[in-house]
Amino acid sequence: MTPDHLRTALTGRMTEQGTRWLAGACASVATDPGVVRGLFPLAGRRCGRGPLDPADPYGWTVDDAARSLLLAAMPLTGTPLLEEIGELYRTGDAAERRAVLRALPLLPVGDGGLPLVRDALRTNDPRLIAAALGDYATDHLDADTYRQGVLKCVFTGIPLAALPGLPGRADPEMARMMAAFAHERTAAGREVPDDVGPVLALFPDVAPPGHRDLQDVPTATTDRPSPREA
Q1: Which of 92, 37, 96 is nearest to 68 (CA)?
Q2: Per-residue pLDDT reduced to its tens digit, 170-219
Q3: Which NCBIfam families does the record associate with it (predicted)?
């Protein structure tokens, strides 16, 4: 997502009053970044809270997009920017924290947003976890933490289709973790989530020989290319 993409996605998703409010709020933040602390919590009530894509319950919401545009409008960089978004994250509710995570790819923060991502991955809030594993995590999160985040998604029922960077970040170690998880589930007589299959299919040689129970794990639930084919 870019600011232009977000503005386009919001077309028709807000009332006329909400559109005017957001434009004015972004202009105010561009002039005085400090006012964002008062405007940020208001975005849901003024702009709306529904999903941008009704078919994607873990995707962007209207207030995610509005808050991200507010943050992108701030003329801040470096430490001042990190301090501002860090304060908004720490003091915000779940929706406000999610918006900060969504906005990270739009902001010149480098690796500075990683502490917020790691904090979100320690929670049990599915939508916060999904937001934490968005485009910013794809580009900046270390391999081990990313793998653990993906496995947490499987444990908590977050569809892996909600993770835009997964095909490029999947690796043999992630597949081994998924294989171990699948074996534990089948040994306990429990269903293996369908999401596990596509990851295993990317690396068919990592499952230990003789573990025939994995043959029944669905592998045709995604048409995304493997990292080796991309």
Answers
A1: 96
A2: 999 999 999 999 888 888 889 888 888 889 989 988 754 444 444 444 44
A3: EboA_domain
pLDDT digits (tens, 9 = 90+) for 20-43: 999 999 999 999 999 999 999 999
pLDDT tens-place string over residues 156-169: 999 998 999 999 99
Q: Which ranges constitute the DSSP H helices of 11-105? A: 16-31, 36-39, 43-47, 62-73, 78-91, 94-103
Q: What pLDDT sits at residue 222?
A: 36
pLDDT tens, residue by residue, 125-156: 999 999 999 999 999 999 999 999 999 999 89
Residue indicated by tokens 């501002």:
84
Helices 16-31 and 62-73 pack at an angle, to 10 degrees, of 30
| Distance from C-alpha of 145 to C-alpha of 60, rounded to nearest angstrom | 23
User: Which of these, 123, 197, 116, lies nearest to 154 by C-alpha position?
Assistant: 197
pTM: 0.87
Cβ pair 122, 132 in contact under 8 A: no
Three-state DSSP class for residue 51: strand
Partner residues linked to 51 by β-bridges: 61
Give one word for 189, left, alpha or beta, with left for phi > 0 and alpha for psi -120 to 50: left
Element spanning 180, H or E: helix 172-187
| Number of helices (H), then strands (E), in the chain | 14, 0
The DSSP letter of residue 40 is G
CA 4 to chain centroid, in Å, comes to 19
